[in-house]
Design brief:
The complex is a heterodimer of chains A (about 140) and B (about 300). Chain A has about 140 residues and is mainly alpha-helical. In chain A, about 60% of the residues lie in helices and about 0% in strands. In chain A, helix 2 (about 25-40) runs parallel beside helix 5. The model of chain B has no long low-confidence stretch (mean pLDDT about 95). The chains are: A mainly alpha (about 140), B alpha/beta (about 300). Chains A and B meet through helix 4, helix 5 and helix 6 of A and helix 2, helix 3, helix 4, helix 5 and helix 9 of B.
Chain lengths: ~140, ~300
């Protein structure tokens, strides 16, 4: 699925009554969003799981070599949290469904932004040099 | 409670001298009301922000280290308080770098020699955020004692942004359990505002990206990210987003306006610095807290709630 298509799907889901939404679909959309990024970087999205979730494994894969990708780390974890809240309540947690959709949408916007300009997220992770162990000296000064 | 933090060197940084003047005013006013002392860093310079850092991280290290050196060597302080997330992040980063990377320390020392000032000795200064400062000197119980106008009835979503907790390895004091701050789910602002009587909503995007510095390169993405932050806060039931970073605050305000003018998307949630909210709870006037300087007009809501 392309990112624009995913964005439209999420917007459509946000319009539906929460009790008609399968929360596993929302998690799968989150995974599809990360797959778009990984595919765009020329890699094959992993099928592995981390801490029991493919979404986290995909996040780790996406962040390799691009520390700014960590700007969506908490969003991935938050999405899983909201999904679990829904499941623990046998699907009867409308607020958590709404929040899961909002987080998945944020993830989609963030990845979309990064596909437009890979520097998105560099602000917080302009920690980039910190994370990438840059040793460039201020040689010219 | 940490007695050391009662009198600290204050590093406002450039944003608090400009777009976030209200954050500076309200931080100083709240500190005074709480009996805490801020001594502004003498002759401070830019922390290197993101511009210098992205060009040359070692030069950015030097710029931040010079500020720490002034605090330690010229003013005799062992604590610097920086309310701006960007400044806070950069001062923490240089501490990490000069402690762990010989080449970073070598560059900082070399440039310090060249500039003719004392070198920064790693570990001689601790950098704290305004949230640490209030939480660890006054704490929730101390705040409750000082509340004269409870924030009861205000529903607040706390937005911490990205630089307060990322990357986690430059914040060794966080994630230590007990009362320490949590990098996955920060809570200091929640704790303080709750102590002032506010209802804190469970906001799932409290550290999510706002597009921040990216706003000029790709304004539409930034606007969409911010609109999602605002709408989600509203969906959580919040009437206010509390901020603790000038860049986040300005970004939320500006893109809220842009969303309305460019995309006809209206949101009603208002933005206030957490220091402005604490100040209101302690009886300070909106004027004293420079609430009129915010772009986001919160005064009608504050009047309705009897806080202005």
């Amino acid at each position: 699925m392309q990112l624009a298509e995913i964005e439209q799907r999420l917007l459509a889901l946000q319009m539906l009554p929460t009790d008609t939404i399968d929360i596993d679909d929302v998690l799968a959309i989150g995974e599809a969003v990360l797959c778009c990024w990984i595919t765009a970087t020329g890699a094959i999205p992993t099928d592995k799981k981390k801490e029991g979730y493919r979404l986290l494994a995909l996040h780790r894969q996406g962040a390799k070599g691009d520390p700014s990708f960590n700007a969506c780390r908490e969003s991935c974890r938050e999405l899983i949290y909201q999904v679990n809240v829904v499941k623990l309540n046998d699907g009867r947690a409308p607020a958590a469904v709404t929040m899961a959709l909002a987080v998945a949408y944020h993830l989609c916007l963030f990845i979309g932004g990064k596909l437009t300009d890979p520097a998105l997220g560099d602000f917080c992770c302009s920690s980039r040099p910190t994370r990438m162990e840059s040793t460039e000296p201020a040689a010219s000064i | 409670m940490n007695e050391n933090y009662k009198k600290v060197a204050y590093y406002p940084g450039c944003a608090l001298e400009g777009t976030a003047n209200a954050y500076d005013h309200s931080t100083r006013a709240v500190g005074k009301k709480l009996g805490l002392e801020l001594v502004e860093l003498k002759n401070w310079n830019c922390c290197g922000a993101m511009e210098v850092k992205n060009l040359d991280p070692q030069l950015q290290n030097y710029l931040s280290a010079r500020n720490l050196s002034i605090a330690a060597n010229e003013m005799g302080f062992d604590t610097v308080m920086a309310p701006c997330n960007g400044c806070y992040h950069n001062l923490k980063k240089v501490e990490y770098d000069v402690t762990h990377r010989p080449e970073a320390r070598e560059t900082v020392d070399r440039l310090s020699d060249k500039a003719g000032h004392a070198k920064y000795e790693p570990g001689s200064v601790e950098t704290i955020h305004a949230l640490d400062w209030i939480k660890k000197t006054v704490g929730e119980e101390g705040l409750k004692d000082r509340v004269v106008r409870s924030l009861e009835g205000l529903k607040i979503a706390n937005y911490y942004g990205c630089m307060y907790s990322r990357p986690r390895h430059i914040f060794p004091e966080k994630d230590q359990g007990g009362d320490s701050e949590n990098t996955d789910a920060p809570h200091y602002m929640d704790d303080l505002l709750q102590a002032a009587g506010a209802t804190i909503v469970n906001y799932p995007l409290k550290t999510a990206c706002c597009g921040g510095a990216h706003t000029l390169a790709d304004s539409n993405t930034s606007t969409k990210l911010v609109v999602n932050l605002l709408r989600t806060a509203e969906a959580c039931g919040a009437d206010i987003i509390a901020t603790e970073c000038p860049t986040c605050h300005t970004g939320l305000e500006m893109h809220q306006v842009r969303a309305e003018t460019e995309f006809d998307v209206k949101t009603n949630v208002v933005m206030l610095y957490f220091t402005q909210l604490l100040g209101l709870a302690m009886g300070l006037s909106p004027r004293k807290l420079s609430i009129h300087e915010n772009i986001s007009d919160s005064l009608p809501l504050l009047k309705q709630k009897g806080l202005a």
